[in-house]
Amino acid sequence: MYLALAVFHLIVALALILIVLLQTGKGSDIGAAFGGGSSQTVFGGRGAATFLSKLTTAVAILFMLTSLTLAILAGTKGSSSVISEQRTGRQEMPAPSPPPEAGKPPSPSKPPGTK
Asked: By percentage, how much of the chain surpasses pLDDT 90?
């Protein structure tokens, strides 16, 4: 299910990109705010919403919902991290070496006469 939702999310993202790129820009009307003539569309008077703007809103809502669902599914999905795994078997500790016998010097680790 996670993979199918991820593929659907990718398709929705590509559709959203294409729909936004198909719309006409509204940046040319901002020049009227700085004395370039009178315009009613700078801060209001948008007119009726076009089909593409309604479709953009619907696809954007769908994109947000799939993003939220994928985030929730990824959070609840079991992780396979090496750090978080606990060992089920107990490791045996090596037996401690016996204490040196009284009166006997400890055996040297190097043979005598070598540096």
From this structure: 34
Give the number of C-alpha atoms closer than 13 A to the C-alpha of residue 83, restricted to the C-beta side: 0
Calpha distance 56→16 (Å, rounded): 7
**What pTM was estimated for this model as a whole?**
0.53
Structure tokens at 91: 């490791």
Averaged pLDDT, 70-87: 73
Q: Residue 1 domain-assigned?
A: yes
Please check whether residue 107 lies inside any domain of the structure: no
Whole-number Å distance between alpha carbons of 80 and 76 = 12
Confidence of residue 85 (pLDDT cuts 50, 70, 90): low
Q: Count of CB atoms within 10 A of residue 42's CB? A: 14
Q: Specify if 101 maps to a domain.
A: no
Pick the closest to residue 41 from 30, 50, 49, 25 (CA basis): 30
Name the domain count of the chain.
Answer: 1
Range of the domain at 18: 1-24+50-76
Residue 39 within any structural domain of the chain = no
